[in-house]
Specification:
The chain is an alpha/beta fold. It has a single domain, classed as 3-Layer(aba) Sandwich (Oxidized Rhodanese, domain 1). Helix content is 38%, strand content 11%. The protein has three helices and three strands. A three-stranded parallel β-sheet has the order 2-1-3. Helix 3 links the parallel strand 1 and strand 2. The longest helix is centred in the first third of the chain and has 21 residues.
């Protein structure tokens, strides 16, 4: 299971890299994400896959905000605007 999650995260980070460059969003390596996740309360991790995919497997501290909820995403995000947010998904199909 850990290998599957690691593979998903690595694939997601790679898939989003080109898209993120167009929007000046920093690309993070798996090690950089792990370093941030090792500091509880210092980052919000958002899994943007469907609820079913999230139930099957997700990174332990991630919250699920699927695309169908993006129109009201503000109510799910922290009030502290300085808190970094890392979004991940399954990549492009």
């Amino acid at each position: 299971m850990r290998i599957r999650i690691f593979f998903i995260v690595a694939l997601l980070l790679t898939s989003v890299a080109a898209w993120a460059q167009n929007y000046n969003i920093p690309n993070l390596t798996v090690d950089e994400v792990k370093k941030q996740l090792d500091q509880p309360g210092k980052v919000l991790l958002v899994d943007t896959r469907t609820e079913e995919e999230y139930r099957l497997a997700h990174i332990r501290t991630a919250v699920n905000i699927p695309p169908v909820q993006f129109t009201s995403i503000g109510k799910y995000l922290p009030k502290d605007k300085s808190l970094p947010i890392i979004f991940y998904c399954r990549g492009f199909s």
